[in-house]
Amino acid sequence: MTFQHKVAVITGGSSGIGKAAAIDWVKRGGNVVINGRREEALEEAAKDIDPSGEHVAYVAGDISNPKIAESLIQEALARFGHIDTLVNNAGVFISKPFTDYTIEEFESVLSINVAGFFHITQLAITEMLKSGSGHVVNITASGVAEQPIKAVPAVLAALTKGGLAAATKSLAIEYADKGIRVNAVAPGIIKTPMHGVETHDFLGKLHPVGRMGEVQDVVNAINYLESAPFVTGDILHVDGGQSAGQW
Ligand code: NAD
């Protein structure tokens, strides 16, 4: 699968799934613009993605800020001329009993997971409408959001990632006749900096297959959706069977 000259904007591209997706995208001949909160982390990530710097650009800042979203889109257009794909990957996860969430946690998770999707998607789709084509991939969550697990209470993930899944379908229908596809990948629990190594045994058991996923599992799903012109409005579960039922 080649992404020759295709331009992807990937939010949260300084680590984990977003960085792996960016590395893979550039390996396949594409160009990426990544975003994350910390300039130094982004600079390091950009070197790993493309040491020549030719196929990667980055914009530091909080993706829930409409001005940062605007800069990211402007950077993609200035550096690479157009935008083919937006991967809404930036996100946070806090597990705790419902009544223990603080107002700050509520506001922060809503801001990153929802506003962080909203502003940049609006701007990206505005550009995609001009070219009559484009693809948006939202990274939602499987188990904790769709098939709640007693041992991992996470209502803010359910609220925000569940909302993203609904928005995926809504936008897919709204833009299907405009050449713009909108899909989601719903991961199970994936080995990224989000989870300390000491938690991996416990987290692995929260999947029917008995183990956690790897970042490449999610990257493969993004790549599949990118190369599937008849697929839109899909929530592709990459979750070791979590969404299939009880086990
Ligand atoms: P990660 O912590 O390695 O990456 C998260 C990225 O988001 C980082 O690059 C971080 O800088 C960025 N980010 C966070 N807040 C931001 C903000 N306000 N502005 C800009 N960037 C911000 O974690 P990951 O596991 O790679 O997570 C990627 C996505 O996958 C997230 O949306 C997460 O909810 C989702 N997800 C992860 C798992 C998992 O188990 N790892 C499971 C389901 C869904």
From TrEMBL:
GO terms for molecular function: oxidoreductase activity, acting on the CH-OH group of donors, NAD or NADP as acceptor. Keywords: Oxidoreductase. Gene3D superfamilies: NAD(P)-binding Rossmann-like Domain (3.40.50.720). SUPFAM superfamilies: NAD(P)-binding Rossmann-fold domains. InterPro entries: NAD(P)-bd_dom_sf, SDR_fam. CDD domains: SDR_c. This is 3-oxoacyl-ACP reductase. The lineage of its organism: Bacteria, Bacillati, Bacillota, Bacilli, Bacillales.
